[in-house]
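Figure 2 data, in text form.
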Amino acid sequence: MKRTLALSLLACTLSAPAFARDTELKLPFEEVLQMPEAQEKLDGSVKFYLAGQKTPKILEKKGEDVSQRKTNGVGKTDEVACRWAALSALIALQDKARSLGANAVVNIVSYYKHATFSSTTEYECHAGNLMAGVSLKGTYAKIPQ
């Protein structure tokens, strides 16, 4: 009887849904750009403009893309992990812009699970128990230098 009860409890525990943490944060974009690592990795050849920010005249649009990046959040605060994920997304956007001959990424919005969050000062990040993720969508463009 005890064995049957123990096995029943074990089966119920294993079949119960796991609830992962998914904390939504809205964080200052400028903090990412001010990271020492951003100063090294983002060389200034590509400028970044959040949706709604004033941009120089756009000479040519070269398509749009989404950059989704995650980082390990273990041992980091959610904010630190989110900055790392956002920096990784910006590096990917910079690399793609260069390959397209663009020198700017404009109209950048957060694009988590295809839901748009737009701000002139903030990006959206989702932090879980082990990972933090940022998804940025923007338009590659050529602007006057």
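Caption note: The longest strand covers residues 60-72.
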